[in-house]
Design brief:
There is one protein chain. It is built from eleven helices and four strands; from the N terminus they run E-H-E-H-E-E-H-H-H-H-H-H-H-H-H. The protein is of the alpha+beta class. It has two domains: 104 residues, 3-Layer(aba) Sandwich (Glutaredoxin); 111 residues, Glutathione S-transferase Yfyf (Class Pi), Chain A, domain 2 (Up-down Bundle). Strands 2-1-3-4 form a four-stranded mixed beta sheet, with helices on one face. The longest helix is centred in the middle third of the chain and has 31 residues.
Length: 234
Amino acid sequence: MIDLYTAATPNGQKVHIMLEECGLDYEMHWIDIDSGEQFAPDFLKVSPNNKIPALVDHDGPSGKISLFESGAILLYLADKAKKFLPTEPNRKWETIQWLMWQMGGFGPMLGQAHHFNKYAPENPLGPVVLPYAQDRYTNEAARLYRVLDHQLATHDWVAAEEYTIADMAIFPWCRLYERQGQNIDDFPNVKRWFALVAARPAVAKDMNKLEDIVGEWDEESWEVSFGARQRTQQ
């Protein structure tokens, strides 16, 4: 049995998709990140960085194992299930490099676009700072979408000529293109690929429940998610 600790975010979605694709037996545990459940001592034992997703596999290779960081979890599950990560060396490393591209660039930069376009308080540091941040990260998001669109112009899938953990990692972030200040029609190859992934039964399962919806923030939830509280609790 696998315990998945997650929330409605792109990083949580990618692991949920992988578990469904692999048909592994798992139970989801929702972490209310707006109320600060990610700082609970029991959760920190699994995820010392106080972020979701996190996973505990009670039937790991040498017994019980816990993991945090979505990229590490995807690689672990691919190894466990022997699925969605090619074994041929060139194709394997092509897949891993696109997974790392998502982990190091596509996710973090699009996350910043989310923050400054939808979450940031208006002009928190003066009249120039917020528009500058919005332009910077919206433009970087567009550049990264162009990189992805160029790759998909000559490939059905992101890497290795097959559906892999690279597709699973990238897909959830593309669901939020409007929040990132993007028009999906500007990236026709991404749009085609997105529809292909979205049509998979394992991807469609529970996606509405897992959708990252912009809600209303009160002072406490803001402090937990973006303010001093998230940096001082450990």
